[in-house]
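One thing: could you explain this record?
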Amino acid sequence: MFRKDHFHKGLWSQGGACSFLRHEVDQPPLKIVEGVHECGVCGQFQHVPHLKPGHVLSCARCGETLARRRRTSAIAGPLVFCLSSLALYIVLLVSPLMTLNIFGRENMVSLMSGPVELARQGFGTISILVALASIVMPGVVLVCMALILYGASREVMPMWVRPLLTWYEKLRPWSMIEVYVIGVIVAYTKLVDLALVTLQPGVYLLGGLMVMMAAMDSAFDADMIWKHRSVTKRKGLGLYRAEGRRMPPEKHMLSCHACGLTFVARGPVDNDEDMGDCPRCGQILRRRKRNSFQAALCFLVAAFIFYIPANLLPVMAFIKMGHGHPSTIISGVIQLWEAGLYFLALLVLFASITVPVLKVFLLALMIGCEHRGRASEASLKRLTGLYKVVVFIGRWSMIDVFMISILAAVVRFGFMASVTAELGVVFFAMVVVLTIFAADLYDPRRMWDAAGYNQEVLVPSAQDEGGGVTELQDMEPEKA
């Protein structure tokens, strides 16, 4: 049975015979606040003016980008790049990436070869992870984008667009084509000394797909798509026009984590309180991510535990003419350095050794700051900036996992030469996944809350106590 706390609840909130929507009596009375946006990393609510194409709006407190208007068309721009990416992706699925020739014997590797070979060697979990990140998720996000743009191009945006847009925002980081490209480059540098390596058309298609998807993301403006979607009318939902009026107290306000729509309640809102369903995207409304402190801490501790065997155990074994030895992550970096590939050696060292340690340390620092409950605004600004860095670099540690999948797939010559994955790659992949989850589940706004920010509450005046009404209780009755 689906619980309403599941993220995919929005898929079942479209009305009809199999709807799990709560009745109007379960929906707390809220007012939509026009022209106000909440910063997603520090929690400050700010007035958002009308932005012209090419303009960027940043948070006045922490510098986070609140809104950006692209110069390209909201639909046509990303649609061109999306269709181009889909064409490249389809051809890439059936195109080889490279060919390895050892004394006349050839092996060819494609995008699907790595997961297949890992599964054959008994690493089914890693096989699924590599297949999801390099094959499945890129296709899923491209199809989602095409459907979103098609729905947004219609005069009335269909209801099914809202769960797709919500899913797209969550699944896009798991499409790791750009990380896979670096994995291919590192694998190529390790193979050139072993045998004759010939790059096939798939490598160029892969590079083109990376560029097209990056351009698609740059041209896509999710905020403009959400504004095209009208809200669902319901009892108790009204409108609060903030223009020309004082900003409501921060403790009374909240925003949707999926579409960014801002609301104000008549009373203070607890951080984990369920405030009903968002009338625009259908997701559950809460002031903060639920149990973010506990969830992030659990994933962080698990990642730290797995990090130790990930570095001590070998991640792969290279055998040539019946002789060879297992290789750890750090020994692979040393081999690249000794081969004169200093840039790649530093890149792998940073992505596979430094980044996991950095993520664990910085997230632990943020969790400790929230637990302590004391920090200056300057310290919070620095931690907020570091949180954005942690989120950005989280995926790049997958370089070694992708490289091993490629080497295991192409170097299969039995006694002459072979590469096999080892147990260490399982622990290392778990570290990457767990730290990504920890960063995603953590809510940096709670650091600011714990330090005393975002806690303004409406104080009733003498008139209110004498039977009058407060400004928030007397909000306009206009329908949203």
Q: What stands out?
A: The mean pLDDT is 83. The chain is about 45% helix and 15% strand. The longest strand covers residues 96-102. The chain has two domains: 29-69+237-280, 76-224+292-450.
